[in-house]
Amino acid sequence: MKGLLLTGLLTGLLAGLLCTDFAHISAATAAEPAGPGFQAARLRYGGGGDWYSAPSALPNLARALRERTTVVVERLEEAQIAISDPEFFSYPYLFINGHGNIRFTDSEVERLRRYLLAGGFLFADDNYGMDESFRREMARVFPDRKLTPVPFAHPIYHCFYDLPSGPPKVHEHDGKPSQGFGYFDGSRLMVFYTVETDIGNGLEDLGTHDDSPEVREQAMRMAINTVVYSLTH
User: 2-232 belongs to which homologous superfamily?
Assistant: First the structure.
C-alpha cells in the first residue's frame, strides 16, 4: 500500500507536467528519462488463459508515450506482475488481456480490490475469449458494484486524443460494435474494460496482424488515453 501511495505521488507530479504541455517534447529528452518514471505492468493470472498475449503491445505503448507525451517513461519493457507479488502495489497502471480463462484466488480478489480502491488503475482488453471469466472474477472483486458502460463523453476518450465514438474497432469477429465498460469509485474510473475490439493486438509490431496504419493509430490513441487518464485522475 505504501509503495502504491508513494508511486501515486510521483505520478501526480508527472500529471502536473502532462497538464501543462502535451505537445512540446524532444526525442532526446524522451530517450533518457531521469529518475523514477512510468512503467506499464502486465497482470499475470491463473486459470489457464494466455496472460502473455500481444507481447509487443506494452513496449510499443511505452515508446509512443515517450515520443508523443511528456510522461517520463522509466523502461520500455513491461513489468510482469502477479497480484500476490510483494511489489504489486508499486505499479499504479496494470494491463490484462488474453483469449482464455481467468481465475483469481480469494486472497488475490481481496488484494486487487484494495489496490484499485487505493488509486490503482486496471486496463482490461478482451482478445475475444476472456469476457465471461473476466466479468465473473471482477464480480468477485466488486460484488457491491456493477460493470457499467463508459459514456462517450467520459474523459478517458478525450483526455489526450479525442475519441468521440469510444473505443475504436480493431479486429472484426462477429459484427458487434466495440464497447468500453468500467468500474467506478465515485467519479474515478478505476477499471476500464474494452470488448469487441482487441486494442492490444492493434498495438503490436507492424506486420503481426493485418491491421491498417489507420486502425493501428486509433488503437494506440486509445491506449495512450488510458495512461494519461490514470495519471491525471
Answer: Domain of unknown function DUF4159 (3.40.50.12140)
Parallel, antiparallel or unpaired: strands 179-185 and 148-149: antiparallel
Domains of the chain, residue spans: 2-232
Distances (CA, A) of 216 to 80, 155, 171, 198, 219: 24, 21, 10, 11, 5
Confirm if 201 and 223 have CB atoms less than 8 A apart. Answer: no
Instruction: Read off φ and ψ for residue 182, nearest 5 degrees.
Output: -160, 160
Q: Beta partners for 184? A: 189
Closest by CA to 208, choosing from 54, 92, 1, 42, is 54
DSSP state of 160: S
Residue-wise pLDDT for 151-179, tens only, equals 999 999 999 999 999 999 998 878 899 99
Dump pLDDT digits (tens) for 172-213. 878 899 999 999 999 999 999 999 999 999 999 987 778 899
Contact of 63 with 76, CB cutoff 8 Å: yes
Pair 192, 123: CB distance under 8 Å: yes
How many whole angstroms separate alpha carbon 162 and alpha carbon 155? 9
